[in-house]
Structures are given as structure tokens and as C-alpha cells.
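Data availability (excerpt). The following record was deposited with the supplementary files.
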Amino acid sequence: MSELQDIPDKPLRKGYTTGACATACVKAALWSLVTQQEITETQVQLPIGEIATFRVQLNKLTQKEATYSTIKDAGDDPDVTHNAEIMATVSLNDTGDILFKRGKGVGLVTLPGLEIPVGEPAINPVPRDMMRIVCKKIVSDHYLEKHGVTITISVKNGEELAKRTLNSRLGILHGISILGTTGIVTPFSAASYIASIQQGIDVAVANGMTELLINSGARSEKMLRSIFPSISEVSCIHYGNWIQETFEKIHQSPQITKVSMGIMLGKAAKLAQGRTNTHSGKTTWDKDFIYQLAISAGYPEEIANKVLALNMAGRLREIFTFTAQENFYQKLIQECHYHCQKIAPNVTIAMYLINNDGTHISYTI
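Predicted structure:
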């Protein structure tokens, strides 16, 4: 997962999940298979009750199977699967069941801890339910209830797209996941990011990890992993801006006994005041609070006053030299530690304030 992007200051267009797109392809393919006719669009009822229309393309139609594809539209969300080609191949079987198979570009679950068992294609429960519903309706409408349906989902270039996600860390290999709980992609929604945090912690716990290394993103993780070169990748979690939700999940996971947290100066300036959602669109750093923090750390007025003239928290380094001996940073990281420990009181938390050049200041209780 890449570093977080700023939210554009404009009305944002919603899109559709990979699960909704795959369901549209399944519906089109099964209908074409049983009628031996071609269609160019189909409608799907989303889990939130809305009806969505999808343009679909026939790729193959025989007496035994049919394949349709659609291009995923994620709206204005910076989703790695935007414009990805989602494809479904369906055939009837004699089991009476809906069977899911992994096509090229769809991930394979290899670690416990996810909602899908090890060895299964990474097609999440809600998309599976959506596909079951459309299949059962079509076989019923055409008096084919004794038959089941075999569904194979594929994603063009899915293995390459997966390299830009955290799938491999979750034990999902060889492709992307087919996701979605509502069918709708809300641009820059916190829900998907928070879900990935929770999944990551679940996978760590399921694989016997008792210690986590948490960071805001890939850059800070790289810096912190240099301090902990032996820590497993499964133990590494990106909290992004959602510190509150991350520590709530940790608190709900008693197997986790220790957390090492890396945090950059800009986020630390917000967290020190108790702002546990650090997104720039939600919170800004409070210069008056930081000024008071400097005073409480023992700095004279003429030094603390310089804080009030800064336009960015990152420029605090111009006033306070970035070293462990600087009382200001010790006070700052102590406050950050307090707010995190309050959310997860039963966990030992070691905190590392990280500079842009990779140096760090540690605070361990």
C-alpha cells in the first residue's frame, strides 16, 4: 500500500467494488449460458439495496461455459484496481452447489486469520453471497435447480496490481482480492483502510505473533524495520491516519503483548494533543498546544514563541535539534504514548519518533 494521498477539494464520484463487478460478470455469463444469447449490460442489486447497471462484454460462449468481463470503475477513489478488467467464467455442475475457483490474477489465501479459509480463492464472503444469489435466481428461473454453478473469477494483470497492495503480507498470493461489503466504492473512504488494519492484526494473531510493529506507511516502516531487522513482515501493520482504530483492535486482541510504534513528526504533533485521526483533512496541528508543550518541557518564552511562527509541524526541527537529548521531543513522544496507552492499557508500547532522514528518538516505558 502506498503512502496516503490528500483528498481532492471537489465533489467526488463513487464507483463499484471488485465484488460488484465480478457479480455482474457472473450474472451475464450464466444468463448467456442457459439462454445461449449475448447481452451487453446487466443489472445487479448491491448489498445496500441499490440497483447498479454494468456494461459487460462476451468473451466466450459455448454449450458448456460462458465468459464475460467488465472494466471496474472505482470513481474518484485512488484504487489500484480502477480500470482493471474483471472476468467471470461459469459452467453448470451436478453437485447442486455454487463452487468458486481462482482464475489468473485472483489471490490465493495461504495464511490463517482471514474470513476465507486457507487454500481458497481470495473472494470475500459478501461478494460470494452476491454471486450465489444471482446464480440461484437464474437456475430457478430456467428450471435448472438440480444443477450447481462453477464460478471462476479472473483479473487481467491482477498479480501485478497485487504488488501495490498489502495482500502478500496478509498471506494472499498471486493476485488481488475480490472485495466489497456494500458494492460501492466511496472515494477516500476510511472503511477499506481500517478493514485492512483489522485484517492485518487478525492474520498476525492467527500466525502466533505476540508483537506488532506499526507505522503510518511504507516509508516510516522501512525506517523502523532497520531497528527491528528480524521482525516478521506479518507483524507489520500500517495504521495510516487511524491510530484510534488500530489501538482499539490491538486492545481487542489479548494475544498481542507488545507494540513498537513509529510516527513521523507531523502526526506526532497531532497525536500528542489526543487527536487519534491524524488525516490532514480532519485535523491540523495546534501551535498553541505545541507552544505550551515546549513551556512545560522547560524552554524559555523566547524559544517557545518561535513555534507560533511556524507553518508546518515538520519545521519544529528548525527550533529543536532532533536528538534524544532534546527535552521537547521527549515530552512530545511521552504525550503520544499516553494517548495510545489509554486506548490499549494492557499492551507494552514502545514509541519511536522518526525523522525524514531515518534517525529516530525512542520512548520506552
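Summary of structural features: The radius of gyration is 24 Å.
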